[in-house]
Design brief:
Strand order of the largest sheet: 2-1-3
Shape: elongated
Low-confidence stretches: 18-27
Structural class: alpha/beta
Mean pLDDT: 77
Oligomer: single chain
Radius of gyration: 14 Å
Length: 107
């Protein structure tokens, strides 16, 4: 995996995880990133290019599709493909380096 792919996967992960973490109403939850860091990340996302492939959870499919649509508005040179084939198969494909990320709702 190239450094560009690693950055793109990291940026995608932030876009997926930050809304979930910041929406948590429990005390002691992880705070959302500062405005300065979010602004810097947004500038970096605009510069990204390439394809990111993922597979996994059918339950989370609608959420991933919404995040992908949102990201594609900023990162116009990035293609993200997600196949909802089940968490187990998604983790297996990720483990075999078939995909760059696995969507899962299991551990």
């Amino acid at each position: 995996m190239t450094s560009t792919h690693r950055f793109a996967v990291a940026a995608f992960s932030v876009l997926v995880l930050v809304p979930v973490m910041s929406a948590s109403p429990t005390s002691g939850s992880t705070p959302a990133p500062s405005t300065a860091r979010a602004t810097s990340a947004a500038r970096d996302i605009v510069k990204m290019a390439g394809t990111i492939r993922g597979s996994g959870s059918t339950f989370a499919d609608r959420y991933y599709k919404a995040v992908i649509i949102g990201l594609s508005k900023s990162a116009k040179n990035v293609t993200i493909e997600y196949r909802p084939i089940g968490s187990g198969r998604g983790k297996s494909e990720f483990g075999k380096s078939v995909t760059e990320f696995a969507g899962t709702d299991s551990t």
